Amino acid sequence: MVAQNGKDLLVKVDMNGTQQFETVAGLRATRVSFGTDTVDVTSLDSPEGWRELLAGAGTKTANISGSGVFKDANTDARVRELFFSGTAPEFQIVIPDFGTVEGPFQVSGIEYAGTYDGEATFELSLASAGLLTFVEPVI
Question: Which CATH topology does 12-35+59-135 take?
């Protein structure tokens, strides 16, 4: 994979439950992380005392965070609405040359900041809330 523009890593939200996705505007920095909890099945019989993990078990998670400035009233309002309602609509995460991850995410945090001589900024955190699908890019 060759170097990619950071601006091409996009977080998109379903605006009204009809798979109408719009980029969460104003994000300047975005981070996506995937993880899984492991299930330790190590016992006294484990070969030479090495840890053993149960294959295929555990909880898979995806977390998204981003920060930026306010630019788009529609997506700003949608993210704020999602936080206060606690709902988990579909999001699309477009990762350049990797693919698109889609599924339900819950807005787990929003922070607002600003200084008297600068722009108002926000930080956003999303947590996966169900089955995610992955689609490879068409090359």
Answer: Pnp Oxidase; Chain A (2.30.110)
